Amino acid sequence: MNGSAISISNIEAHVAPKEKRKGKLKDDTAWAWVMLLPNVVGFFLFMLVPVVATFVLSFMKYDMLTKPKFVGLGNYITMFSDPIVWEVTKNTALYTILTVPVGMCISLLLAVMLDQKIAFRRFYRAAFFLPSITSMVVVAIVWQWIYNPEFGIMNYFLSLFGIQGPKWLLDSRTSLVSLAIVGIWKSAGYNMIIFLSGLQGISTSYYEAAKLDGAGLWQQFRYITLPLLKPTTFFIFVMAVISSFQVFDQVMLMTEGGPGRSSSVLVHYLYQNAFQYFKLGYACAIAYLLFFIIMGITIFNMRMEKNMRDNY
Amino acid sequence: MSNKRILILNKSIAHVVLLIGAFTMLVPFIWMLSSSLKGLGEVFVFPPKLFGERLVWENYTQISSRFNFLQYFMNSVKVSAWVVFFQVMTSATAGYVFAKLNFPGRDKLFLLYLGTMMIPFHVTVITNYLQMSFYGLVNTLWSLMLPASVSAFGTFLMRQFFITVPNELVEAAKIDGCNPFRTFFMIALPLAKSTIATLCIFCFMGVWNDYFSPLIYINDSRKYTLPLGLASMKGMYSTDWPVLMASSVIAVLPVLVAFLLAQDAFVKGVMMSGLKD
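Predict the joint structure of the above. Result:
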């Protein structure tokens, strides 16, 4: 069987290239679908169906016990008059503002420092990257202890400088900031590596030329590194904003949104509605609110970037 | 000032910055390690000390008798092994099809995959839960393994690699009588080793550390994976910090070992995710 297949395809290859191409397309289609099948089935069941089903369910009232009831735009109308939705959206935005710019500056600083022949490079890189690979549960356990107002090392450290530290996670004024610090700490190394790959893409000849022209280090950074790094910076910015709008694990683990609602975020409220209050339709509406916020911000960012590029 | 001296000055400034950075990143881990070797009362000492009276190794031997740690660990191993294997296989196969086979609708289908990468996980999780409960799989490890067996990102990553494989190679295999699956399995797959390693690492890290899915799907404490188990220990035994810290150390170890063994693959993976667009 195999032998004949070889000879036939050999003949086809030499004799009838056009015929062969036609045959190939047909063959490929069957094979392609056979090979795609497991992936496509999973993709269909666990991605496409849920995306559509969540949208449909967002127009219904459903508590998992009684039959779903169609309520039209009811959930969305409730959502816009729900003060908690506004509060958690505000908290989510605040968390993003607290983490993204500071985190990016730290990542960029570390990346620039590492982007040279320097001793212990691998050690530094590994140390910065370590938090990114650690489970958020472990991070939460350790940081909760670090933040402990009585025995934690955070306030001990501050006391060395004569500063009376706050109650961190236990105070509604500092709970969100405390979570943001953990967020920055955890993702700095990851973004640093992406920055590093961007930096390595910049040709050294630019710097050499600048040096010949007498540009100092700051000038080199300002007029060569920053502009040429813009695509990387933009990419990290977009991804960081998207992921900080989806923050959940550290909130659930370290404060459960408290004290009060001071550190509750969108996904946390979604989780509560779906799996604690059993308002599944409402939770689906919140899921789509999150989706549209993220889409909106991403499209806005891309427009901005395009404008900046066009005006450059 | 000569050029050389500027260079040395730079390097020492860089070392200071980098040392402060590394210190900040490592302190929580050092603290975790040191607390895991303290006596119960010693963690409450203020000002805090790095070491207690003696190193209490019993904290580690006590883990399995105090908590159902071993069970959580085995559940995590099981789920991770399944998900890594199947996600890599489905991603590699489909990635190859999208890169090297011609069939009508290919590009549209691939675009659909790309489009879903922008959708937040939380948009699908509620109805996925309902689906799992419909199949009767809630509260089983299947609810963690099945949905994670396919990944649009993994498929994308593998396709990006297979695109770079020369068409001549695929054609030659075909002329020699290989069907597309054999060509994929015997010719293309061995070439993809490093991309597969990257995907394995990413996938493993994601599953091993996943807290959200088990939180939603699993109620029965015998089915807990490590993150959920640790989180529940935190609630139950909030006073026994040393043992909790020791458990955390053990929980971090597998990923840490994987990272130290394959640091370059990790870094490459992050860089590749940075080249996504």
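Chain B touches chain A through 102 residues (CB under 8 Å).
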